Amino acid sequence: MDRDWMNISYLEQGSEIQRNVYDVVMRSGVMEELAEFDPVLTGTYPIGLNIPGSDLDVICSYSDASAFADFIQMKFKNQEGFSMTRKLIRDEESIIARFYYEGFKLEIFGQALPVKEQYAYRHMLIENKILKEKDPSFRQKIISLKRKGLSTEEAFANILGIKGDPYEELLKLEL
């Protein structure tokens, strides 16, 4: 059975760091605060590719960018190191807020796309599928490249011999 990525309770049965991430996310209240925006934890922690300093990436979907930005500002502005930016990413207006919570870097990323259509979610599913198909040394190679400064997508593209923009090319592996 496939994992329900929409509910982070799967982390409770994960590695020690995944269980810790679950506890931190639950204590932060971020998923509850963002419930109306369909928050999903994506990135390296859910699929076990995190390295020291990895972000807790929470993607969201909004219908009104300004209302979302105002909400994020109101709810999280008092968090340590809070910052927020708005920019176009692949022709989609994106709102990115960052702050620290209990030593973890949290990033809230919002677009007017359903979360299951956003790159972060789609990449995570593809990367997880590849990890399941490969032997454990593949995971270690990815982590090693990440420690050298490559993004997760760049590390996958490097090891798989994918040319071009890794963020676009990885999506072509989607089934």
Q: What does the radius of gyration come to?
A: 16 Å
Structural class, please? alpha+beta
**How large a portion of the residues is in β-strands, by DSSP E?**
15-25%
Number of domains: 1
Q: What is the H-and-E element order?
A: HHEHEHEEEHHHH
Q: If you consult CATH, what is the topology?
A: Beta Polymerase, domain 2
Number of helices: 8
Look at the structure and give the mean pLDDT: 93
Distance between the termini: 17 Å
Instruction: Tell how many strands the DSSP assignment holds.
Output: 5
**CATH architecture assignment:** 2-Layer Sandwich
Give the class-level CATH name.
Answer: Alpha Beta
CATH superfamily membership: Beta Polymerase, domain 2
How would you sum up the global shape?
Answer: globular
Q: The biggest beta sheet, please?
A: 5 strands, mixed
Question: Would you identify the regions where 5 or more consecutive residues have pLDDT less than 50?
Answer: none
How would you describe the overall organization of this protein?
Helix 6 (136-147) packs across helix 7 (152-160). 42% of the residues lie in helices and 21% in strands. It is of the alpha+beta class and 175 residues long. The chain starts with 15 loop residues before the first helix and ends in a 6-residue tail after the last helix. It has one domain: Beta Polymerase, domain 2, CATH 3.30.460. The mean pLDDT is 93. It has a 5-stranded mixed β-sheet, sandwiched between helices. Strand 3 (80-89) and strand 4 form a beta hairpin.
